[in-house]
Sequence to fold (295 residues):
Amino acid sequence: MKLSTTTGYPAQLIGEKAAIAKLAEIGFDCLDYSIFYHDNHEGLLVKPLPEILDYFRSLKEEADHAGIVFGQMHAPMPSYTGDVQEDEHLFGLMLKSIAICRQLNCPYIVIHPCIMAERKYDRLINESRELNIAFYTRLLPALKEYGVQLGVENMFNWDGELNKICPTVCSTAAEMIDFIDTMNRIAGQELFVACLDAGHANLLGEDPVQMIEALGSRLKLVHLHDNDGLQDCHTEPYSGKIDWQALCAALKRIGYSGTFSFEADEFPRKYPPFLGLESLNFLYQIGRKLITEYL
Fold:
């Protein structure tokens, strides 16, 4: 199984091309390209698409030279704010991101579902479902044109009254399955897959093992990171409450064929910048050991 990690933090430290080369040098097989580190309103993403694609063509050339591939990509965030003008702007970024994904020869893009502020616990389930089906349907022409599959990720919201993380759209495997199967019926082909964020599941008291087993063959992508069950820490395995041996065993049971992809962006931030890149070596060792021992 191939081992992957995000590009965002090392790119902030040393630039995107140098980060690609560094992660390849460490030993990672694949990259999860973190396009959401780019600003939504200024800089690269607001330029004309041909100019944007020229830049990403150069990133692909750097990856080719380093001997590493783009296994998945994370779209800009958020997908929805409730402000019509802003949401149209964000939708335009999603369309650009799908084109960028193809430029990187990347098969999958993760685009968060639209999360209404009031969509907490069991509130506004039907309204939220209609909103997201409409949103994802609008993306179908671009997905088909560029031959990219979309990963639907399990998400959470914030309960301001109780001051804690709470369930929202796609917090459960059942709701993820509903969206994926519904959208694939609408698309007439398999364009939508599951992206299980193990940390998000843990925050909501959902067992990642049970979610893996429920998603089964729909599961093509993972975001792997740990937390204390209270905060979205995005840190390294064994630093929180997730049972990593059990999680790996579940991936093996369902015949998971995707990459073992870390989204532990906050782990290297625990350290001063001069140690940040070195910490990625340790993250690599954890991942390689988990794959070797349990997958």
